[in-house]
Amino acid sequence: GCGSHALGRIVPLLETSTDLQLVAVWTRNSTTQTRLRERGIKGVCGDFDRFLATDMDVVYIASPTGCHFEHAVAVLRSGRHAWVEKPVVSNISDARELVALAERTGCMLAEAFMFTWHAQADAIRQTLAQDLLGELRMLSLVFCFPHLPPNNFRYDPALGGGAWLDHGCYLIKALDCYFSGAWELLGGCLDHGDYAVDISGAAQLRRTADGLIANLNWGFGHSYVNELQVIGTRGRMLVESAFTKPAARSCNIVLEDSMGQ
Prior knowledge:
seven-stranded mixed sheet
């Protein structure tokens, strides 16, 4: 799958990588095929079976969310590792089936949440490990932005659309990344508006081990917000650009004491 995300971010990284060699791309879009060939990329094709027959180790799946399961199954059955754009699938039963298939084939199944590998993630973990904030009391995770063009696949339920699967999932990934443990859902809501998919939502969770509260907000049709806030008994940490991090954007982490200084 070679849409704007793959063309703008993934393919350029693969082209410059010293560890990976790009040997094939599958896309049904003839215009995209031409653009890829003009960039000097070999192995560009529109036939999925011919693509899977290529001599390769890993397939990066960047198709729409609703296609991930079908494509990952085919990749794993072909004996290749599957690196899948987030979220890996649309529902828990498909996730369990893919994990079982990966175990049977001995292949890697990876979900591509990029922010967990960024240097900023290490800085957040190190700050939390230093206990500068005291006992943690409350988390606020917000990821929202203006509406996308109406023909975007994220508004199509058949393609795994909706704000929750598109970017609400980042907030749950951040909880797992920085604040691991068992979480209880206290309540929440999804708003569809006049759309066929959910366009925004909110949830509140409580960590069972210590009662830490997490408030999550996400959605299309908002001003752009991309931040994580951690409030403790001795201070507060605010992380800007917490869930997506373009290469040119600097890391901004603000620490305050209990008096807001």
